[in-house]
Amino acid sequence: MALGLPLAALGPDFDLKAEAAAQGAAPVWRPRAGRAGWLMAASTNDGEEAAILDAFAASGFDHLILAPRHPRRGDAIAAMLVARGLAYHRRSAGAVPGGARVLLADTMGEMADWYALCGACLIGGTLVDKGGHTPWEPARHGCALLHGPSVGNFAASFAALDAAGAARPVTALTLSAALAALDGATQDRMALAATLILQEKGDTEALFQAILTHSRL
Protein backbone atom coordinates (compact mmCIF):
# COMPACT_ATOMS: atom_id res chain seq x y z
CA MET A 1 0.00 0.00 0.00
CA ALA A 2 2.91 2.34 0.70
CA LEU A 3 3.96 1.80 -2.92
CA GLY A 4 0.52 2.81 -4.18
CA LEU A 5 -1.54 -0.40 -4.22
CA PRO A 6 -5.24 0.62 -4.37
CA LEU A 7 -7.29 -0.37 -1.35
CA ALA A 8 -9.76 -2.11 -3.64
CA ALA A 9 -7.02 -4.47 -4.79
CA LEU A 10 -6.42 -5.90 -1.33
CA GLY A 11 -7.56 -9.46 -0.78
CA PRO A 12 -7.86 -11.65 2.32
CA ASP A 13 -4.75 -12.21 4.42
CA PHE A 14 -3.72 -15.88 4.50
CA ASP A 15 -0.81 -17.78 5.98
CA LEU A 16 -0.45 -20.32 3.20
CA LYS A 17 1.84 -22.56 5.27
CA ALA A 18 -0.90 -22.85 7.88
CA GLU A 19 -3.48 -23.54 5.19
CA ALA A 20 -1.25 -26.23 3.66
CA ALA A 21 -0.71 -27.88 7.04
CA ALA A 22 -4.48 -27.95 7.60
CA GLN A 23 -5.22 -29.46 4.18
CA GLY A 24 -4.98 -33.16 3.50
CA ALA A 25 -5.08 -35.61 6.39
CA ALA A 26 -6.40 -34.45 9.73
CA PRO A 27 -3.81 -32.90 12.07
CA VAL A 28 -2.09 -35.52 14.14
CA TRP A 29 -2.49 -35.56 17.89
CA ARG A 30 -2.13 -38.52 20.18
CA PRO A 31 -1.10 -38.97 23.81
CA ARG A 32 2.61 -38.70 24.42
CA ALA A 33 3.18 -42.29 25.53
CA GLY A 34 6.70 -42.99 24.27
CA ARG A 35 7.00 -39.59 22.60
CA ALA A 36 7.16 -37.52 25.80
CA GLY A 37 10.90 -38.04 26.14
CA TRP A 38 11.73 -37.08 22.56
CA LEU A 39 12.72 -33.49 21.76
CA MET A 40 13.09 -32.06 18.26
CA ALA A 41 15.24 -29.03 17.40
CA ALA A 42 14.07 -28.14 13.91
CA SER A 43 15.98 -26.16 11.28
CA THR A 44 18.50 -24.75 13.72
CA ASN A 45 20.91 -22.01 12.71
CA ASP A 46 24.46 -21.17 13.67
CA GLY A 47 24.44 -19.74 17.17
CA GLU A 48 21.54 -21.85 18.43
CA GLU A 49 22.91 -25.37 18.82
CA ALA A 50 25.19 -24.70 21.81
CA ALA A 51 22.31 -23.40 23.93
CA ILE A 52 20.04 -26.21 22.77
CA LEU A 53 22.57 -28.92 23.59
CA ASP A 54 23.33 -27.47 27.01
CA ALA A 55 19.62 -27.21 27.87
CA PHE A 56 18.92 -30.71 26.58
CA ALA A 57 21.80 -32.22 28.55
CA ALA A 58 20.34 -30.77 31.76
CA SER A 59 16.74 -31.71 30.92
CA GLY A 60 14.70 -34.81 31.59
CA PHE A 61 14.32 -35.59 27.90
CA ASP A 62 15.70 -38.97 26.86
CA HIS A 63 16.44 -38.20 23.22
CA LEU A 64 17.11 -35.23 20.97
CA ILE A 65 16.78 -35.08 17.20
CA LEU A 66 18.76 -32.07 16.03
CA ALA A 67 18.12 -31.10 12.42
CA PRO A 68 20.24 -28.14 11.30
CA ARG A 69 18.85 -25.81 8.65
CA HIS A 70 21.96 -26.47 6.59
CA PRO A 71 23.17 -30.11 6.77
CA ARG A 72 26.65 -29.04 5.66
CA ARG A 73 27.12 -27.75 9.22
CA GLY A 74 27.01 -31.32 10.50
CA ASP A 75 30.72 -31.53 11.30
CA ALA A 76 30.66 -28.35 13.39
CA ILE A 77 27.66 -29.58 15.36
CA ALA A 78 29.25 -33.00 15.82
CA ALA A 79 32.24 -31.24 17.41
CA MET A 80 29.88 -29.53 19.88
CA LEU A 81 28.39 -32.90 20.80
CA VAL A 82 31.83 -34.42 21.36
CA ALA A 83 32.89 -31.47 23.52
CA ARG A 84 29.84 -32.02 25.74
CA GLY A 85 30.27 -35.77 25.97
CA LEU A 86 26.83 -36.39 24.45
CA ALA A 87 26.51 -39.74 22.68
CA TYR A 88 25.27 -39.19 19.14
CA HIS A 89 24.82 -40.81 15.77
CA ARG A 90 24.53 -39.11 12.38
CA ARG A 91 21.66 -39.69 10.04
CA SER A 92 23.95 -38.99 7.08
CA ALA A 93 25.87 -42.12 8.09
CA GLY A 94 22.68 -44.19 8.08
CA ALA A 95 21.83 -44.01 11.79
CA VAL A 96 18.24 -44.33 12.98
CA PRO A 97 16.59 -42.70 16.00
CA GLY A 98 17.19 -44.34 19.35
CA GLY A 99 20.67 -45.70 18.76
CA ALA A 100 22.19 -42.88 20.82
CA ARG A 101 20.86 -40.09 22.99
CA VAL A 102 21.20 -37.58 20.13
CA LEU A 103 20.46 -38.10 16.45
CA LEU A 104 22.19 -35.47 14.32
CA ALA A 105 19.72 -35.34 11.44
CA ASP A 106 22.11 -33.87 8.87
CA THR A 107 20.00 -34.91 5.89
CA MET A 108 17.19 -33.44 3.81
CA GLY A 109 13.60 -34.50 3.20
CA GLU A 110 12.89 -36.36 6.46
CA MET A 111 11.53 -33.64 8.73
CA ALA A 112 7.99 -35.03 8.80
CA ASP A 113 9.33 -38.31 10.20
CA TRP A 114 11.17 -36.49 12.98
CA TYR A 115 8.16 -34.35 13.89
CA ALA A 116 5.96 -37.44 14.10
CA LEU A 117 8.42 -39.11 16.47
CA CYS A 118 8.88 -36.22 18.90
CA GLY A 119 6.55 -34.88 21.55
CA ALA A 120 8.08 -31.40 21.70
CA CYS A 121 9.79 -29.18 19.16
CA LEU A 122 11.95 -26.09 19.41
CA ILE A 123 11.54 -24.03 16.24
CA GLY A 124 14.91 -23.03 14.83
CA GLY A 125 15.78 -19.58 13.59
CA THR A 126 14.08 -18.06 16.64
CA LEU A 127 16.92 -17.99 19.17
CA VAL A 128 19.02 -15.97 16.72
CA ASP A 129 17.96 -13.09 14.51
CA LYS A 130 16.58 -15.11 11.59
CA GLY A 131 12.86 -14.45 11.94
CA GLY A 132 11.94 -18.07 12.63
CA HIS A 133 10.62 -20.96 10.55
CA THR A 134 7.06 -22.16 10.23
CA PRO A 135 5.47 -23.61 13.39
CA TRP A 136 2.63 -25.27 11.50
CA GLU A 137 4.43 -28.38 10.28
CA PRO A 138 5.45 -29.58 13.77
CA ALA A 139 2.06 -28.48 15.09
CA ARG A 140 0.33 -30.69 12.56
CA HIS A 141 2.34 -33.68 13.75
CA GLY A 142 1.35 -33.20 17.38
CA CYS A 143 4.38 -31.42 18.82
CA ALA A 144 4.29 -29.08 21.77
CA LEU A 145 6.08 -25.96 20.52
CA LEU A 146 8.86 -23.78 21.92
CA HIS A 147 10.31 -20.75 20.17
CA GLY A 148 12.70 -17.92 20.79
CA PRO A 149 12.02 -14.17 20.42
CA SER A 150 12.85 -13.87 16.70
CA VAL A 151 9.55 -14.77 15.02
CA GLY A 152 9.10 -11.95 12.51
CA ASN A 153 8.57 -14.30 9.55
CA PHE A 154 5.49 -15.81 11.22
CA ALA A 155 4.62 -13.25 13.88
CA ALA A 156 0.83 -13.63 13.68
CA SER A 157 1.07 -17.42 13.73
CA PHE A 158 3.28 -17.54 16.79
CA ALA A 159 1.08 -14.97 18.54
CA ALA A 160 -2.00 -17.12 17.94
CA LEU A 161 -0.25 -20.29 19.12
CA ASP A 162 1.12 -18.55 22.24
CA ALA A 163 -2.29 -17.12 23.11
CA ALA A 164 -3.91 -20.56 22.80
CA GLY A 165 -1.29 -22.21 25.00
CA ALA A 166 0.01 -24.28 22.09
CA ALA A 167 3.46 -22.67 22.10
CA ARG A 168 5.76 -21.11 24.69
CA PRO A 169 8.33 -18.36 24.15
CA VAL A 170 11.82 -18.98 25.52
CA THR A 171 15.29 -17.50 25.38
CA ALA A 172 18.65 -19.22 25.41
CA LEU A 173 18.75 -18.53 29.16
CA THR A 174 15.26 -19.85 29.96
CA LEU A 175 15.27 -22.84 27.61
CA SER A 176 16.52 -25.28 30.25
CA ALA A 177 13.73 -24.41 32.69
CA ALA A 178 11.16 -24.55 29.88
CA LEU A 179 12.25 -28.06 28.93
CA ALA A 180 12.06 -29.17 32.55
CA ALA A 181 8.43 -28.03 32.66
CA LEU A 182 7.40 -30.00 29.55
CA ASP A 183 6.16 -33.20 31.11
CA GLY A 184 3.94 -35.55 29.14
CA ALA A 185 0.67 -34.03 30.35
CA THR A 186 1.82 -30.53 29.41
CA GLN A 187 2.89 -31.72 25.98
CA ASP A 188 -0.58 -33.26 25.58
CA ARG A 189 -2.34 -30.00 26.39
CA MET A 190 -0.15 -27.93 24.10
CA ALA A 191 -0.40 -30.34 21.18
CA LEU A 192 -4.18 -30.51 21.45
CA ALA A 193 -4.40 -26.71 21.54
CA ALA A 194 -2.39 -26.51 18.31
CA THR A 195 -4.61 -29.12 16.70
CA LEU A 196 -7.72 -27.10 17.53
CA ILE A 197 -6.21 -24.04 15.85
CA LEU A 198 -5.34 -26.05 12.76
CA GLN A 199 -8.88 -27.37 12.56
CA GLU A 200 -9.99 -23.77 12.05
CA LYS A 201 -7.64 -23.45 9.10
CA GLY A 202 -7.91 -24.93 5.66
CA ASP A 203 -10.85 -22.92 4.27
CA THR A 204 -9.28 -21.37 1.19
CA GLU A 205 -12.58 -20.69 -0.56
CA ALA A 206 -12.43 -16.98 0.31
CA LEU A 207 -8.94 -16.79 -1.19
CA PHE A 208 -10.02 -18.51 -4.41
CA GLN A 209 -13.02 -16.23 -4.73
CA ALA A 210 -10.84 -13.15 -4.24
CA ILE A 211 -8.47 -14.33 -6.96
CA LEU A 212 -11.39 -14.93 -9.33
CA THR A 213 -12.92 -11.57 -8.53
CA HIS A 214 -9.72 -9.61 -9.10
CA SER A 215 -8.89 -11.55 -12.24
CA ARG A 216 -12.06 -10.16 -13.76
CA LEU A 217 -11.31 -6.54 -12.86
Report on this structure.
- With 217 residues, the chain is of the alpha/beta class.
- Helix content is 37%, strand content 14%.
- The protein is built from 9 helices and 7 strands, in the order H-E-H-E-H-E-E-H-E-H-E-H-E-H-H-H.
- Strands 3-4-2-1-5-6-7 form a 7-stranded parallel β-sheet, sandwiched between helices.
- Strand 6, helix 6 (155-163) and strand 7 form a beta-alpha-beta unit.
Give keywords.
7-stranded parallel β-sheet; elongated; 217 residues; alpha/beta
Q: Can you count the helices?
A: 9
| Mean of residue pLDDT values | 89
Helix/sheet category = alpha/beta
Shape: elongated
Name the strands of the widest sheet in spatial order: 3-4-2-1-5-6-7
* Number of E strands: 7
Low-confidence stretches: none
Compute the separation of the termini in Å.
18 Å
- Helix-strand pattern, N to C? HEHEHEEHEHEHEHHH
Largest sheet: 7 strands, parallel
Sequence-ordered SSE layout with sheet pairings:
Blueprint: H1 16-22, E1 38-44, H2 49-57, E2 63-68, H3 74-83, E3 88-90, E4 102-104, H4 111-117, E5 120-123, H5 136-140, E6 144-147, H6 155-163, E7 167-169, H7 175-180, H8 184-199, H9 205-215
Parallel strand pairs: 1-2, 1-5, 2-4, 3-4, 5-6, 6-7
